Amino acid sequence: MNHLVATGLSSFAVSLVLTPILRDVFRSLRVVDQPDRKRKIHVHPIPRVGGIAIAVSYFLVFYLVRQTDGAGLDDQRLSIIFRILPAGLLVFATGLVDDLFGLKPWQKFIGQFAAAGLAYWGGVHMSVMGGHVLPEIWSFPLTLIWLVLCTNAFNLVDGLDGLASGVGLFATLTIFTAAMLTSNEPLAFATLALAGSLLGFLCFNFNPATVFLGDCGSLLIGFLLGCFGVIWAQKAVTLLGIAAPFMALSVPLLDVSLCIVRRWLGNQPIFSADRGHIHHRLLDRGLTPKQAVFILYGLSSLAAIFSLAQSFTSNAYLSVLIGIAFLILVWTVVQKLRYSEFILAGKLLRIGELQRSVSGSLTLSAFEKSIARATTPEEYWGTLLDTIHAFGFSGARMRIGVNAYEHWPEEIHGPKFWLVRIPLNERGDYVELARQTGSQSLPMVVAPFLDLVAGALGAKANEQELETASTQAPTAVHVNS
Predict the structure, then answer these.
(1) What is the pLDDT of residue 67?
(2) N or C end of the chain, less CB within 10 A?
(3) Domains contained in the chain, CATH given
(4) Is residue 72 predicted with pLDDT exceeding 60?
(5) In this structure, are residues 175 and 307 in contact, taking their beta carbons and an 8 Å threshold?
(6) C-alpha 337: how far from chain center
(7) How confident is the model at residue 477 (pLDDT cuts 50, 70, 90)?
(8) What pLDDT is stored for residue 466 in this prediction?
(9) pLDDT at 238 (0 to 100)
(10) The whole model's pTM is what?
(11) Does the structure show a pLDDT above 60 at 70?
């Protein structure tokens, strides 16, 4: 126990002393993060490679403590550190190069996957699931995906002063508590040292921050916690028990998951930057940066409680109830954030909306086929008139050459209706449609319908032989006016 406490205190002391020194050095070298008043809301340029202090204090402290009392601190207690040291240094170096010179996403992924491979080679395996040993064909890719996911989750959540380092501290202390309760000394040594490093750094990173983690810090924290989560999960004897590490890291994992799904739903590049992270949503609701951070600290505390309860619950029914309660908490948080992408997706998944969307797509397909079969302007008009009501349009006008058609009820006037005029060619042929403002008839396929009218009818209009267009006046044909 004395060696454990000494390790934690030493990492805290080294981080506390080293952080301001490195901050001032890199400030003088102008290695700073410039504010943009959009995503980066800090006022002044702030040094961004504070993760160096965490890496040095974390890895150096084991050497210092061991040199001080090598006989008492045997290699068995430091086994986890020896296993993850090469991988940790590689992922730290990847982040540092990105901070100093800039890397493309695929370049960072190469470094992260290489580090995950080193960790796997060092013995960090997702090899046991619910008491069952996984074959290597599953263990290897699952381990790599988990480690890279955790690594990037903390990188993405690093958007407010003290957020990533504070959330990382909560997760580290959660895993440390679990290690102590299970008498897992190697895991306890590995996590308490990281907690000390994070706490020392947080003294200068909390709002208002004077130094930032940078990618070298956020990637390292996420990677180490991912490794610790795998080692913790190896002791789980039930399928639900392995959910505990996921719960402990749920705040950053939820953020990265929401980012991926949101950008996929919005047809945006997965690696693009935006203001859709959880902390941005809290700021958009009127909270100050410090209030947003405290709320996320609170969620991290709740996640820690659920995580420990799930890990040490032997009753299967109680374990299921804990899992359900946790999912309800996650669902409530996502609902409170009110992401437009999920609201729209939820509407589409409702039976009525899904049926209307399918019906609209089928109607659109039928209209396209009917226009393709039509050969005269009268047939074009008949097909158009048979279809417009399905898409919420109340009136229509069409002119092709000397032929003019109109279905325009008297109630179509004023601001209650909006009009769209679709030119079909350079000769002046057109289709004009009227739709009532606020109509809910198939809004998701209105634009594709208008595109189809412009393309299909435009092509048909150009095929017509309009030899008398310059000598004959248009003839109006009124249908149900």
Answers:
(1) 72
(2) N
(3) 2-247 (no CATH), 366-478 (3.30.450)
(4) no
(5) no
(6) 13
(7) low
(8) 44
(9) 56
(10) 0.77
(11) no
- How far is Cα of residue 58 from the mean position of the Cα atoms in its chain? 29
